[in-house]
Amino acid sequence: MPKSRVGIRKKNEAFKKTKIKPGHVLKKTNVTDTRFVAKQLSLIEQLQAKKSEVVSYRGLTLGDLFKQMGHHNLNIRRDAVVGTKELLKSNPVLMNRQMMNIIPAVARLIPDPKNDTHMTAQLRLLLDMICETSELEMNPHFSLFMSHVLCGFTHLQQSVKAFALDVMNMLMDKYPNLCRKSDDLFQSYIKFISGHRKPHNKQMLVYSIQLFLKVYKKSNEEKGQALFSAELNYEKATCDQINLILPTNPFDFPILGSLLSDETSPLDTESGEKQTTEIIMPYLKALLSVH
């Protein structure tokens, strides 16, 4: 009996070969598809917080600029200094809020021997802006600031020493009371003047010595204790004299280096006066005698 056309067509469909277009691959039926699709989840609060953060003209935050200041490329460090200067200039409120992050990031660039002339000029402008803060706000960070400047004093390159001396003059001019408390500054400055490799700018050296002698001038005035009388009325009326001494700040201690008293100067001691007389005065006389 002849086979029907329906049976023949069903038989051919079971062994039918699928035609594949050029460039396409036939999917295997016994392979598990492990692909997955994920959608992005955006939190509105995080987006609003990111938009509210102050950024520079290049779209970088203050934290990003601090990270770039530690980059090995000089151009990136210079751009970070310029961006920080513009950001602090347009937002003065950030100076007081971020002082604990500004000083470590900026002060470490002072003794950097890779700084060129343009980098030094931009860094000087930024340091001048930072030193516009009050003495009270600079006090907790002054010891760290001073330690980086003193590192520049001991450097072998003349350019680093000259820039460190320029920054030191700025600190002695704007923060004389904080400089007076630093014993490390006094000892390092004496060693700097007694050394052989000093900057060639004699005018800056004379100005620096004048500031140094002004900061560490002798304390001729004797400060007496204030005496007050108070009457205490309890069971018996009595009148007693009480000496009220101004309390010192318990948090006024150096993190790096040593601290001197406000009432005394190293020039009051015999060793300090001897070092000044034998080292600084002859060198100052030699500078002034040269025309």
Index terms:
2 strands; about 55% helix; single chain; two-stranded antiparallel ribbon; mainly alpha; Leucine-rich Repeat Variant; about 290 residues
Characterise this structure.
The protein has helices spanning 5-14, 44-52, 62-68, 74-90, 93-97, 99-107, 117-130, 135-138, 142-153, 158-174, 176-180, 183-194, 202-215, 270-289; strands at residues 226-233, 237-244. It is mainly alpha-helical and 291 residues long. Strands 1-2 form a two-stranded antiparallel sheet. The longest helix is centred in the last third of the chain and has 20 residues, at 270-289. The N and C termini lie far apart (133 Å).
The residue ranges in which pLDDT falls below 50 over 5 or more consecutive positions are: 221-227
> Mean pLDDT, rounded to whole units?
79
Main sheet record: 2 strands, antiparallel
Topology, number of strands: 2
- CA gyration radius, whole angstroms: 36 Å
